[in-house]
């Protein structure tokens, strides 16, 4: 499936099923009452918010993961909330994220420790220019590492949805192989689309949040869930190119086997 069709289908899917996003709407809105409870020092509102936040962590990652699965199948069906399965998917997604963030975290701490020693020496010797260069270089290294592994995590999640195997999703070399199959150029175009979507969403959200009282709730409860559904569904559609190729390969292998049997 080409990128234009992926984008078009993702928007159609999300807005066609906007009424079914009620579960996400409610969870996002309930979480947003935590700062309200803190501002007004209302312990009851704060407790409700904290309970909602706990449910949010348990449910939302797994529920959003189901959008990737549906995208893989190029289906227009909307995921139902199976609490046990959703929580199980959430745990798998969280484990996957923690595993893929190990390298960026290690790079961050190495850069921080190195910068601390060199920065102290530079500042003590009044070498401000050297200090600024070291800070800039460290930030670039950390940022590039984080972005690289965040991209790998996208497709590791899609691989997890396809194979339903956490161990397979943790094999970085296989994930890199999937990226090659999809095509680096196709992925770059998809990432550019997602970046543009986030930028446009940020501009629009600035106007929405400015609406007194309801603006923030509209942004949290409606705007973000729609963006998340578009992003996860489009990821599934993008990865479905591999699924289609695998199905074609399996069909070809069966035809070859049948020809051998006939001969």
Write the layout of secondary structure elements.
Blueprint: H1 3-16, H2 22-31, H3 33-39, H4 43-72, H5 83-100, H6 102-124, H7 128-163, H8 166-169, H9 172-182, H10 184-209, H11 215-262
Helix pairs in contact: 1-11, 2-4, 2-11, 3-4, 4-5, 4-7, 4-11, 5-7, 6-7, 7-9, 7-11, 10-11
Structure description:
By secondary structure, this protein is mainly alpha-helical. The protein has eleven helices and no strands. α1 (3-16) packs across α11, α4 (43-72) packs parallel to α11 (215-262) and α7 (128-163) crosses α9 (172-182). The chain is globular. The two termini are 36 Å apart.
Features:
263 residues; mainly alpha; single chain
Percent of sequence in beta strands: under 5%
Mean pLDDT equals 82
- The general outline is globular
Radius of gyration: 22 Å
Low-confidence stretches: 247-256
In helices, the fraction of residues equals over 70%
* Strands, count: 0
Major beta sheet summary: none
Structural class, judged by helices and strands? mainly alpha
Put simply, the count of helices is 11
Query: What is the ordering of alpha helices and beta strands?
Result: HHHHHHHHHHH
Distance between the termini: 36 Å
